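Re: the request from the purification team.
They wanted to know what the chain is likely to look like in 3D before they choose a buffer screen. I agreed to run a prediction and write the result into the notebook, where they can find it.
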Amino acid sequence: MVKIITVYGSLLLTAMGRTLLLALLGLFFACIVGLFFGMLSVLTNRACNIIAQIFVDVVRGVPMIVLAFFIYFGMPYFFNSVIGGFNVTLTALQAGTICLALNCGAYMSEIIRAGIQSVDIGQMEAARSLGLSYGIAMRKVVLPQAIRTMIPSIINQFIITLKDTSILSVIGFPELVNTAKNVQANTFMAFQTWAIVGVMYLIVITILSRCAKMLERRLNVGRE
């Protein structure tokens, strides 16, 4: 184990950095996707509700590894061969970010929907009675209150997304699990390699979990 840390420690730390980068990129775009479909799900328009529900059901119903293969291999093939006239190529980072954004975005959509619905409907009615449009009332009155409720869930979703990055080793992105496979192949020390990787994940996720709990306590104090 000491040999692995000494020889491959910097390589594993770099891989953890890539893992965090991928998770952050995925969460960033997932927030955009989730906000869009979350807003569709709370509109009074039935068609918008159906579109949002279909997106959530489809993405959540497809295993993430299948989604990763579909985006990395299927999308370029579709545009280049089926439609033709395109020269689409995706790097592992691009495909991984899209995959995480869609997968995490489906869950973020539900988090945002629940956060908005947790705000008393009287807040929206009061804002509209003052002459604010629906969009302005949602942006300046409802969403700021909903965000307080959503932040702990968003952090927990980031933790889940961080763990989900390990699945993207199947498309060759050099995150922690993929790098650990190479280390194991070079050292033939499976137990030690995966023990170190497990501890690295444990440390990062424990820190994030503590941050989520501290933030949740502070937000709860703010409501009192």
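For the purification team: Residues 2-42 form the longest helix (41 residues).
Please add any questions underneath this entry.
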